[in-house]
Amino acid sequence: MTESKSSSESSVPETIDVCIVGGGPAGLTAGIFTARAGLETVLLNTGEPILERNAHLENYPGFPAGVNARLLLDMMTDQADRNGCERYERLVTRVAETEDDRLLVETEEGDVVTATYVVCTSWADTVYLQDLENVGLISRGSKTYIDVEDDGSTGVGGLYAAGRIAGEPHQTIVAAGDGARVALTVIHDSDVPFYHDWVVPESYFTGRGREVPPGCEEIDNGERQRREAESMDVMQSYFENAHPDEPTQHPSVEEE
Ligand SMILES: Cc1cc2nc3c(=O)[nH]c(=O)nc-3n(C[C@H](O)[C@H](O)[C@H](O)COP(=O)(O)OP(=O)(O)OC[C@H]3O[C@@H](n4cnc5c(N)ncnc54)[C@H](O)[C@@H]3O)c2cc1C
User: Fold this and answer.
1) What is the CATH number of the domain that holds 38?
2) How many A from CA of 220 to the centre of ligand 1?
3) Does the C-beta of 117 come closer than 6 Å to ligand 1?
4) I want to staple 85 with a disulfide (CB 3.0 to 4.6 A). Which of 80, 122, 155, 185 is the partner?
């Protein structure tokens, strides 16, 4: 797996389209979608996605006998990288509104990033939103959730939330799906021309006298076979050996 860029290696771009806070299933999936739509996307994450604690993931569609959760995270991370989502290891400490209706994202490492859109997927941290009066926060037990509309938007223009932090059920496929759904809201709210993110066989649109819609791609049979062969090679390499990492134990168990 490609490690995210640390503060010593490189600096986060100062002005971007989309900043995603959190690199679990919701954030990585949101990053795949917004980057594929051509929006300059930066993902800031520190700490472990909660899925690292799972022993064997058996309810994520596409893996009939289940899958190692850490392997799935590696594959999602590589897919985000491959599609142009830039990842940095950073702790986001503050988000504020700018005078020109954008959002300022500050990190503990000293970065100040101006983003048109911010997608919060940072289970279980909302502290960095404390200066935004119009973001609703909901307390349930010891946890705090971000209050969102059905499409993932919040009371602050350009600020969205997805996954567990947005109160979604505690399952990986739901968090990933919500990341995709909220990313589509961001794409629709931006001025990127977009129809569907689809790859279709040659002539699917043009054979009916239609132009290939924005966000779609027509590929011929040779290219389809090349991509399939590459995908088979890539997947075989992921499943060659057992994953080296153990599940992370619950902190209170480790302390005992
Ligand atoms: C023990 C255990 C077993 C589970 N087993 C299953 C299962 O079998 N099947 C299933 O479907 N689901 C399972 N789940 C649930 C599933 O893992 C979660 O619902 C899902 O992963 C949530 O994804 P998310 O992207 O919303 O949050 P997360 O994956 O937690 O991602 C949030 C990320 O944001 C980072 N972050 C937080 N604050 C900041 C900040 N300020 N700046 C930068 N980064 C920040 C976090 O460190 C983390 O990396 C399990 C969970 C646990 C705890």
Assistant:
1) 3.50.50.60
2) 39
3) no
4) 80
Q: Looking at the domain assignment, is residue 43 inside a domain?
A: yes
pLDDT tens-place values along the chain, 256 residues long: 557 776 556 899 999 999 999 999 999 999 999 999 999 999 999 999 999 999 999 999 999 999 999 999 999 999 999 999 999 999 999 999 999 999 999 999 999 999 999 999 999 999 999 999 999 999 999 999 999 999 999 999 999 999 999 999 999 999 999 999 999 999 999 999 988 999 999 999 999 999 999 999 999 999 999 999 999 999 999 999 999 999 999 999 966 5
Indicate if ligand 1 lies below 6 Å from the C-beta of 171.
yes
Does some domain include residue 123?
Answer: yes
The label of the residue with tokens 């931006």 reads 190
**Are 176 and 203 within one domain?**
no
Helix H or strand E segment including 217: strand 216-219
Residue (of 44, 122, 136, 133) closest to 96 by Cα position: 133
Atom of ligand 1 nearest to the CA of 107: 42
Q: Are 184 and 34 in contact (CB under 8 A)?
A: no
Which residues form the domain of 157?
Answer: 15-190
Domain count, the chain: 2
